[in-house]
Design a protein that fits this description.
The chain has about 400 residues and is of the alpha+beta class. The protein has four domains: about 5-115, no CATH class; about 130-295, Nucleotidyltransferase, domain 5, CATH 3.30.420; about 300-365, RRM (RNA recognition motif) domain (Alpha-Beta Plaits, 2-Layer Sandwich), CATH 3.30.70; about 370-399. The protein is about 50% helix and about 10% strand. The chain is built from 16 helices and eleven strands. It has helices spanning about 5-15, 25-40, 55-70, 90-100, 105-115, 115-125, 135-150, 155-165, 170-180, 190-200, 230-255, 265-270, 315-320, 345-355, 365-370, 370-395, and strands spanning about 50, 75, 80-85, 130-135, 170, 275-280, 285-290, 300-305, 330, 335-340, 360-365. The strands form four sheets. It has a four-stranded antiparallel beta sheet, with helices on one face. The termini are far apart. GO terms for molecular function: 3'-5'-RNA exonuclease activity; RNA binding. This is PARN like, ribonuclease domain containing 1. Belongs to the CAF1 family.
Length: about 400
Amino acid sequence: MNEEQEKQIKHSILSGNWRVRSSLDKDQMKAVIDEVTRWLHLAEEGDWMTLPGIAGFRAFEVQLVLRQALPDIWTVLRDQAVIVKKVSKQHRWYLQNTSCDRESCWREQILLSARGFSVFFQMLVKARKPLVGHNMMMDLLHLHEKFFRPLPESYQQFKRNIHGLFPVLVDTKNVTKDIWKELNFPRVSNLSEVYDVLDSDLNPTRNSGPVIVHASKCEKYAETKCPHEAAYDAFLCGSVLLKVAHLLLWRVHGAGSAPEPSFPRYLDVLAPYVNQVNLIRAGVPKINFSGPDYPSIRPPILILSVRRWPGVTEQQVYREFQSLCKFDVRRLTRSQFLLLTNKFKDARSVLKEYRGHPSLQVSLFRYWRHSPDVQCLLRVCSIVTAWALLAFLLGRPGP
């Protein structure tokens, strides 16, 4: 939960206005209360019943709700179960004021449990350590929205917030993309493939880099690939960071004079990439969280005008160009589509191949020329101008 949600829940819990969090929880809680109420109607003072299979956070929640709903019972947690005992109101008052198992302590534990991953998020923020990710823009958006505050309207405010939370960001996607072509490594499309290349003989520093030792419960990752498993992805990302940093250190100092590797030295060679997070097909190639963004170097947007192809869809347009290159296709009007790519050579290739095509006309997209909104505005203005001119001519007095 983010800060605003935590404040709301904390106020509700500590003020005694606890509300069960989901419709499923409400149904389960109602069933428990009904069961205890039926038993309570027939029970004598001192009798007790057991609610089995309730432990952890749910046990605190069940006890809190039961004590609030039923004034003549007392509850105790014992061996993965909640014990409910019928007591007099006087005895209940005595237990409430003398027992070390007080509701105020439960409320704090319920709040702690409800915070969930937010506790770990706050630990990350307070640690002020480098935060490493691969193509991590979506991760940062989720962290901000779910564990800090709702996303702001201002892009610059978002950058300031993230930089305040995590002053050192390292996006391994940005680092590897920048040096991949220089080292003539084969093309890769995901984190696992990046790791495989850096862990192969193609990497000249493969045998001199840092040794990565797995924890006892993660030794399987040394032999088995487990993509999209959190611990495995973290291992890949951290390994790629160390291998790339070691490779950069080797390139700076050379094989013979390279200093003893250490994490501070790795951070020094990674300094040009710090706080720069990769973006895909956006207005800028990457976000600089500690300063102004770099100018855009994206290929121009192309517009496809279709003739004599009624009912054409985005999927059909995509398949038309698939053999030549890959585009993102977005419909603009009934017969026009926007084509977006991240490679200049693809844009040039399509413009060349489809020059003079009888039914598919590809050209550079110009906002003031091709935007439907602009065209609509121009039509309205032309109509208004024509009517104004006509009214002026008809309204002129005769000679």
